[in-house]
Specification:
The protein has nine helices and five strands. It has 194 residues and is mainly alpha-helical. It has a three-stranded mixed beta sheet with strand order 3-5-4, covered by helices on one side. A two-stranded antiparallel sheet has the order 1-2. A hairpin with a 2-residue loop joins strand 1 and strand 2 (33-34). Helix 8 crosses helix 9. The longest helix is centred in the C-terminal third of the chain and has 18 residues, at 152-169. It is globular and about 55 Å long. The protein starts with a helix and ends with a helix.
Amino acid sequence: HLEIFKNKDIEVLLLVNRIDEWLVSDLHEYGGKKLQSVAKGELDLSKIGAAANIESAGEDKKTEEDKSAKEELTDTIKKMKTVLADKVKEVRCSERLIDSPSCVITGEYDMSLYLQRMMTASGQNNMPRGKPILEVNPQNPLVLYLKNEPDEQKFAEWTNLLFEQALLAESGRLEDPAGFVKRVNSILLCNIGN
C-alpha cells in the first residue's frame, strides 16, 4: 500500500498496534490534519500531491500513460471479476502500486480484513463480513502477461494466484492453502518445461 507514497516521498503515519484501527475510526483528524487510511477506499493522488506541495516534471505524460494502460486492461479486469466473483467486491486498477502486481484493500467504510479476523476470533461471528477489493498494477509484467493469456483455465489460475498473493501480503489467511500451493507448483512446472 505504501509504494506510491515512498515513490513520491510522502510521509505516512504507521499505525501497527492492534487497537489502532478502532482508535482511528473515531479520530478523523489530528492537529488539523485529516487522517486517511492508505489501505481503504479510493486513492486520490491529486489531493495528496497538492497537500504535500508535490510538483513533478513529466507528471502529465505519466498520467496519460497510466490512463492508457488502464483502458487496455478493461476486458482483463472484467474477466478477473468474473473469476473472483464470490471472493471480491471489486477488481480495479491501482493508484497505490509501483512494483507489486496486486494488493487487497477494503471499502472506505468497511472493516479491514485484520479487524474482521479479530472480531471473529473474539466470538463475533454474526458481524457483517465485507469482501476485499483487488487492485492490480497495470504496469506490472504479471498483470500484462495475464492480459494476453488466451487459455481460460490458466487465466483463472493466474487470477486466483494474484488474489491469494495479495491476501498473504496483507497478512491474511487463505481459505484453501493447499490449492494455493498446487497453483504455484503448476505454474512453476509449466514454466520449467518452456
